Amino acid sequence: MALINKIREKSGWAVGAIAIGLGVFVVGGDLLGPNSRLLGNNANTVGEIAGEEIEFQEFDQVLQQVKADYENRTGRAANEGELAMLREQAWNQLIFKIALQKEYDRLGIEVTEEELADMVQGNNIHPAVQQAFTNPQTGEFDRNQVVQYLQNLDQMGPEARPMWVNFEQSIYADRLQSKYMNLLTKTVYITDTEAKNYYQAQNASANIRALFVPFVSVSDSAVQVTDAQLQDYYDRNKELYKVDEGRSVEFVTIPVNASPEDSSYINQEIGTLSQQFAAATNDSAFVNANSDVPFDGTYRNPGQLPEPLRNQLPLEEGKVYGPYTENGTLALFKITDVREADASAVRASHILIRPENDTPEAKAAAQAKAQDVLTQIRNGADFAQMAAQHGTDGTASTGGDLGWFPQGQMVSEFDEAVFNYSGTGLLPNLVETEYGYHIVKVTAPKSNQEYQIAGVQRAIEPSESTRDAAYAVADELSGTSESAEELRENVARNPSLVKEEATAIGKNNIVVNNLNNARELVRWAYAKDTDVGDVSPVFEIDDQFVVATLTNKREKGYAKLEDVREELTAAVRNELKAQQIIAKLEGQQGSLDEIAASYGPDASVRTADNVTFASTAIPGLGVEPVAVGKAFGLKPGARTAPFEGQSGVLMVELTQMNPAPEINDFSNVKEQLSGTRTNSVQSNAFEAIREKADVKDNRVRFF
């Protein structure tokens, strides 16, 4: 049975390898969901990959296998969020299997029966087989275990043979993938010139000065953007505006929160339970029968108690404390047992003054400062405020509070000082440790008692009548709104309702803004009979009702100009501002400083040393690839004409070129560049295959 379990675990071996190897191919919904489009009217078709229609049954078979593997590994059923992830994995596996198999067939890549046998029990054992059939005594692969396993396969139960077939298929797929990967990898070759250029780009640097005039120095009102200019910019930069399929909605949420009447009812119920709890003779049974959280018999020191109980120390055995309200929960606590602990616990605060270094002078200065702070606190200064002002560790932001801690947890000098102090209050002397000098205040006396508590905890939940009232509001909003405009008008008339907007929702999205389980809303937005302006029925999402209207359908391809008008306007406005700035700078003589002074206060000159060609960024100016490229094309002392950058207009002057150190052996550079190029070749090839496969994803109709 243990060996069968190992085979079950290893049957997913290739799936993991495929996921790593594919890289960009399995990045999830952002590539495979929104990039696709709905199919025709075939009700059983989940999608299409490389011209092959994928029927629901075929997809479901893969999904069930992926789901079974996941649940075997985790030991529990997948929740809704995990199911969405598993559906994505199953879809990716189908894309991988179908699209790449066509490439394998075209290139003649195959794994023969003889090769498969060799991987299982021959001379070239597959790593997954080696791991599954390792002799526990020797730690080595045992071929006899494989032979014995295969001979007894039919005697191991009905699931054994299908499991083995799946295992063989996984290593078969992994070998195919390895061959294809190797074929791609062998295409990578780095010449000496490439290695030298790469080395120079990484190690040569330039010292530059740059005159910079930001776009914001010209007011938006000084630039008028016309529709013709927007169209011209769009046509020139159309490739920047490729988009995936998406939907935009406006929606209103009606939360289902407990009403004051609900809270009052639960408080009355807790009041009755408090009396019964005090009289109960079997506290654990009472808790399990009346609490949302089962009985936990753990003994706790004061620092581990709920905060309301810590404020009541010392606690009495048999007494019921509460009710307390916290995070939407009402709680009663009964002390069921009190016992002496092996170690005491205490609560304290401190202010740590660290020396700047290990020199005697630095330590003396830190001690003097700590003594001064201690004196101020003795004279009435607030401890927490002094901790916030002078503390040098993470507790400064919490007034120096260390919370409760048991004896032996802190460094010995600190531990001894605190636990030898009786009662509460400010320790009279500084405590020196390896970290520095501490001003210490004991805020709760040490205690060696541990408490066993029984807690009755009830969530303050909305009643059915409260839920019905919230639904009635949502239902009326949906029923009286026949268009997006009517929905907006109805929301405007009700000040308690707030409208939100979500744009570019992918067809496989689960989350929409702050709605975490909005799958039904997404499916409605992508339904074929949902048109722009339609208003949805009421959706129950988490603890709220939602009504939405579809405001935009975006198809895969190039964005409509109107959909990106705001973004285009900003880009064109910057172009026009750049033209104005350049016109003012052109023809000016003198140094960059003189030109900046002549231009006005909006112009500044920045200095940046050791700028590398590969970085594309200039310290103090940010990412400016054009500026970096122009700088490396200059001779020392030369400068560029004014030109448009990322966030303003620049003039770049090269003050010094720092050549890369001379080396004779570029083998390490070649190896580094080869690794980068290999990864790029593989990911680019897979992306090209995916694009060629023309994946059409229609899962939104089913899930």
UniProtKB/TrEMBL annotation:
Keyword field contains Signal:
no
User: What are the protein's GO molecular function terms?
Assistant: peptidyl-prolyl cis-trans isomerase activity
Q: Does the keyword DNA damage apply?
A: no
Q: Mind telling me which residue stretches traverse the membrane in this protein? A: 12-32
Q: Which InterPro entries match?
A: PPIase_dom_sf, PPIase_PpiC, PpiD_chaperone, Trigger_fact/SurA_dom_sf
Q: Name one GO cellular component term.
A: plasma membrane
Looking up SUPFAM superfamilies in the UniProt record yields: FKBP-like, Triger factor/SurA peptide-binding domain-like
Going by the UniProt record, its keywords in alphabetical order are: Cell inner membrane, Cell membrane, Chaperone, Isomerase, Membrane, Rotamase, Transmembrane, Transmembrane helix
Against Gene3D superfamilies, the record matches this protein to: 3.10.50.40, Porin chaperone SurA, peptide-binding domain
Main localization of the protein described in the UniProt heading = membrane
Kindly name one Pfam family recorded for this protein. SurA_N_2
Q: What is the membrane topology here?
A: Single-pass type II membrane protein
Domain PpiC: residue ranges: 343-444
Compartments where found: Cell inner membrane
Query: In which family does this protein belong, per the annotation?
Result: Belongs to the PpiD chaperone family.
Tell me which PANTHER family the record gives: PEPTIDYL-PROLYL CIS-TRANS ISOMERASE D (PTHR47529), PERIPLASMIC CHAPERONE PPID (PTHR47529:SF1)
Name of the protein this chain belongs to = Periplasmic chaperone PpiD
Annotated source species = Pontibacter diazotrophicus
